[in-house]
Design goal:
The protein is an alpha+beta fold. The chain contains nine helices and 15 strands. The chain folds into four domains: 65 residues, no CATH class; 50 residues, no CATH class; 52 residues, no CATH class; 122 residues, no CATH class.
């Protein structure tokens, strides 16, 4: 007696044996009305292999689902999700079999991230941004290193806004510090007392490209102007910007006083050169103190004058220190 080889359908990575049994006319009509063609019975008498009329892909559906609901073609769903991921700046790699609401993606940086489908849709619509945890952690480490600190880990008290740091280039003390304060340098070490007010600082001038096509000059002070330019001031990472000049100042408090005097002079002498906030509020995290690009030469000239003055003051302080040391040695 001849044995017939079973007919196998390979559907979405699995082999399914075609089952005997009639495919009724009203089943075919229901499938056609919902965008499918019934290929065969598979698995058991209540499961059907459906071919999508849109993409031609096969998937297995329960008969009850076909007759009472609108089956979703998983191939079409995957294609839509891949297109959504593309618009979000991601590449869909695979679904998360442990949670049907998640999938794994490759970010533009090359790292693999796990995200909800719903969140990726929001990314594609521009409602939120992509953030790679690996790159984000590296940025936080760099922020801390620029301030002379080392990022140890998450906040031991569980706050999302704080991190645990160590004063690596100072006294070695460990401290909970708000990440925003680490970015700006506005904090005091609990071990040695070094702070933005007492520690060395800089007066800086930066140039930003505005949406109008013109440029604006930002005058300010910071203990770390490079970090301020790279991480803090801009709202969009692709904003064209450059650090024009930074002048060393003996303390943050002194830098603040000098900056205020310079702003007061600029506003009094050039009141029409201030950039109104509506021209930069969507681009920068600042509320004021931006000047038209025509003042660049004037601002830099004033900063060079301040730099010479600071240099002379530093030389006088060193001379007084040497003189004091000599007197102490003689006594």
């Amino acid at each position: 007696m001849t044995q017939h080889q079973p007919i196998i359908l390979h559907i979405r990575g699995e082999d399914h044996v075609v089952q005997p049994g009639e495919i009724h006319a009203h089943w075919r009509e229901a499938a056609e009305a919902k965008g499918y063609r019934i290929v065969a019975r598979v698995k058991d008498r209540y499961s059907l292999a459906l071919e999508c009329n849109s993409c031609g892909g096969l998937h297995v559906s329960r008969l009850f689902v076909l007759l009472n609901y609108q089956p979703e073609c998983p191939h079409c769903v995957d294609a839509r999700r891949r297109e959504t991921a593309k618009h979000a700046g991601l590449e869909l790699l695979r679904r998360d079999h442990g949670n049907r609401k998640y999938a794994f993606y490759r970010a533009s940086c090359g790292h693999e991230i796990r995200r909800q489908f719903e969140l990726v849709e929001r990314m594609a619509q521009g409602e939120t941004a992509v953030r790679c945890e690996i790159c984000h952690h590296a940025r936080e480490q760099e922020e801390a290193a620029l301030e002379g600190w080392e990022l140890l880990g998450a906040d031991p008290q569980g706050s999302r806004n704080y991190r645990l740091y160590r004063h690596a280039e100072g006294c070695g003390a460990e401290a909970r510090i708000a990440r925003a304060n680490m970015q700006t340098g506005r904090f005091t070490c609990p071990g040695c007392g070094e702070s933005w007010a007492t520690g060395p600082s800089f007066l800086y001038a930066m140039k930003f490209k505005l949406e109008t096509g013109s440029s604006a000059i930002k005058l300010g002070f910071s203990r770390n102007p490079d970090s301020r330019l790279k991480y803090q001031l801009h709202r969009h990472s692709d904003l064209a910007r450059e650090l024009l000049l930074k002048v060393p100042m003996r303390t943050g408090r002194h830098a603040q006083r000098v900056e205020k005097r310079l702003h007061k002079w600029l506003v009094a002498e050039f009141p029409d050169e201030l950039v109104p906030p509506e021209e930069f509020s969507d681009l920068l995290r600042v509320k004021s103190e931006l000047y038209r690009a025509g003042l660049e030469e004037t601002i830099l000239r004033q900063m060079h004058r301040i730099a010479r003055k600071e240099k002379r003051a530093a030389e006088r302080n060193r001379a007084r220190s040497r003189s004091r040391s000599k007197r102490m040695r003689r006594t």
